[in-house]
Amino acid sequence: MTPVLDLEDLGFASGAHLLVERSLRRLVPGAVLNVVGRDPALGVHLRGWCREHGHGFAAHSTGGYALQRGAADLQRWADAERAGSPHPDELVRHPEPHWGLAARGALVESGGPVPLSFDLDDRDVVWADLAPRLYAHAAAAQWDPNVAVDWSASFALPADIESAVVQVMTYLVENEQAALVIPARLLARVHPHFREVQQLLAVQAADEARHVEIFTRRALLHGSEMGTSSAGGRASLTTLLSEPDFSLASFLLSVLGEGSFLSLLSFLDLHAPDPVTRQVARLARVDEARHVAFGVAHLEHQATVDPTLRGRLRAAVERRHDALIDTAGLNADVFDALVVLAAGEWTPAAIRRGYKAVGELQRNMDEGRQRRLLRLGFPADEAAELSALHTRNFM
Amino acid sequence: MTATLILGAVAYDPKVVTIWEGFRQWFYQAGLPFDFVLYSHYERQVEDLIAGRVHAAWNSPLAAVRAQRLAAATGRRVRAAVMRDTDQDLTSVVVCRADSVLTSPGDLKGRSVAVGAVDSPQATLIPLKLLADHGLDVEADLTVRRFEVGVGLHGDHIGGERLAARALAAGEVDAACMIDSNHLAFSRDGTLPPDTRVLAQTGRYDHCSMTIVDTAPADSADRFVELLLGMSYEDSRLRGLLDLEGLHEWRAGRTTGYTQLAAAVEFTGFYDRAGRVTAPGYVP
Questions:
Q1: Which A-chain residues 73-92 have CB contacts (< 8 A) with chain B?
Q2: B271 to chain A, minimum CA–CA distance in Å?
Q3: Which end of chain B is more exposed for a tag (fewer CB within 10 A), N or C?
Q4: Residue A201 near residue A183 (C-beta atoms within 8 A)
């Protein structure tokens, strides 16, 4: 018996095609659907719609219309495929380039564009099982720079102590700019199949954007001038920007650079002479710890599947060291500012104390780097050697 | 060696290059040398077809009608080789606003009608013939307002129909002419209010046609037709091109769908029996 669809007074200018399509979908190609309705333009529109969608159309002499189901909609999806599984524990090693921007697990119509920009498409290169959890944590830990810091806290520092704080903030901003740009560039190259990695890198970039804001805001809290930016410092950061390899960039930035920064931010939290500086350092440190965790987790995973990884990591450190050998490394203004900031006053005893604290900071950084290198499977002596080759600019 | 099949196509839109360049590669992969020539209007394309400068012409229905007349007058033969599934059984409608006092085509006497370009089969020639068949003297009884967009493109450019619809919506005319599917599209996209009334509907007619002239290399022409008819909408290498060209499958050509248009051409004196352009003021 031929099925009948009664559209009542619903016309095609008001969505009648949805009911027609639904009824046709239940039929096999060639089968007939009778359509009746009271919209005055129904016959005109149904004819045009059927023609454009590959269905047959005939008007009954007694009123109503006979539609013969076509196959174009079925043909369109005949060789469609799923873009893998939606679940992060069922990732494929090499997602298809033509899945492109499709949601993971979506049914992908064939014949679409093949984006060439997602060249980071090997699970073993970009993935870490920790990524979904780290992303969830990162998303939950976002804070509003406007309210997370008590910008109205009242304090006054001697002018040259304040200058030291401004110098350190200026240095931090410069480093955070690099830390913002690098994940932003990498995330645009990650195949969307690994979306948790994209999301994590996106939040990482957003974290750095907030850090740039709070460090700038602290620098200008009591004045209107930023500190200095040395050629050597910028040279060190520029070598990070030029590293195209995902693992090596992640290693240099997150494991070694941001790893060192954890010690620096702890130092500021401990020694900074005012509550706002301590607060901004503490907030940034929590975020940076997450970045370091992903970098280490991702490389730990990769080291288990790629025996050449450690050799490449070592070569990357050496290459960067060689590239920077003729540069000054850390901005001397920054080093001095850290001493003054930790000293808090201009007495010989205080300067001695500050100098000692910065020495401890450098040892802490070195120990932290060696610890992370050990986790990546480097033997202790090699870890010590590589840590010593790390840029004097800290990041 | 297979002779190169040369097709004429009218460049009514930049996508024409994408379509025929895509098909060209497909034909080459299938062993058929193929090239195409783009024209800015249909008249020269048809003249070149009959003169043998191209072997096949992707013709508007009006160009297909003219090709038949030119061929007959010069001792050539043309065939309607293939057409799009979406080009069979179109109708055009004459519509008025919901609040109009008009109830039948005859009520248009003394009133204004918006149509497309002078050479549009669907929005001008066939609908005006329909109104004449309803007893209206097109020149004496009607003020015909033509929207001359893309003259020479035989109505391929939808602009004329859209402007006619806009004129109706704006209350500048009493009725407007368009294809059934464009009435739906204009009702959906807001060009027309959703409740315009259909005053008259033409009988079914066909649209574009692949015309092949008898001077074309026979093997290449046959292979060309065979390859077109073999194109599958399931094939993702072709589907994008078929979507651009607006079809799901190529069907065997027919000329039975041009009866109304031939009568309209006769009625308006658009071409003479020998296929010469005789429409007054028509400059493609």
A1: 75-76, 78-79
A2: 29
A3: N
A4: yes
B52, B215 contact by CB (below 8 A): yes
Task: Indicate if B188 and B219 belong to the same structural domain.
Answer: no
**Which candidate from B93, B201, B234 shows the least CB-CB separation from A75?**
B234
Q: What is the pTM of this model?
A: 0.84
Same domain, A69 and A84: no
Provide the ipTM: 0.94
Is residue A118 domain-resident?
no
- Segment B50-70 mean pLDDT: 98
CA distance, residue B194 to nearest chain A CA (Å): 6
**B interface mutation test: which of A9, A39, A47, A107 has the most B CBs within 10 A?**
A47
> B98 and B68, same structural domain?
no
Which residue from A143, A154, A386 is spatially nearest to A285, judged by alpha carbons? Answer: A143
Number of domain units in chain B: 2
Q: Is residue B182 part of a domain?
A: yes
Given a contact cutoff of 8 angstroms between Cβ atoms, the answer to whether A59 and A21 are in contact is: no
pLDDT at B35: 98
Chain A partners within 8 Å of B194 (Cβ): 11, 13-14
Residue-by-residue pLDDT tens, chain A, 395 positions: 899 999 999 999 999 999 999 999 999 999 999 999 999 999 999 999 999 999 999 999 989 999 999 999 999 999 999 999 999 999 999 999 999 999 999 999 999 999 999 999 999 889 988 899 999 999 999 999 999 999 999 999 999 999 999 999 999 999 999 999 999 999 999 999 999 999 999 999 999 999 999 999 999 999 999 999 999 889 889 989 988 898 999 999 989 999 999 999 999 999 999 999 999 999 999 999 999 998 999 899 888 888 999 999 999 999 988 888 877 777 788 899 999 999 988 999 999 999 999 999 999 999 999 999 999 999 999 999 999 998 888 87
**Which residues are paired to B38 by β-bridges?**
B9
Q: Do both B101 and B192 map to the same domain?
A: yes
In a domain, B72, yes or no: yes
Contact B248 A12 (CB under 8 A): no
Asked whether residue B191 falls in the same domain as residue B246, the answer is no
Test A51 with B86 for CB contact under 8 angstroms: yes
| The two structure tokens encoding residue B176 | 């407007």
Q: Do B30 and B170 fall into the same domain?
A: no
Burial of A377 per CB tally in 10 Å (0-12, 13-18, 19+):
middle
Q: Are residues A186 and A212 in the same domain?
A: yes
Q: How far apart are alpha carbons A1 and A22 in whole angstroms?
A: 18
Clarify whether residues A187 and A103 are in a common domain. no
What are the tokens at A289? 């710890």
Cross-chain residue pair B233–A44, CB shorter than 8 Å = no
Based on the fold, state whether residues B97 and B197 are members of the same structural domain: yes
User: Is the Cβ pair B183, A49 closer than 8 Å?
Assistant: no
What DSSP designation does B82 have? E
Domain that holds residue A10: 4-74
Write out chain B residues lying below 8 Å of A72, CB-based: 233, 248
CB-based burial, A206-226: b 16+ in 10 Å, e otherwise: bbbebbbbbbbbbbebeeeee
Give the domain range for residue B251: 5-87+206-268
Asked if A30 reaches chain B (Cβ–Cβ under 8 Å), the answer is no
- Per the domain annotation, does B249 fall within a domain? yes
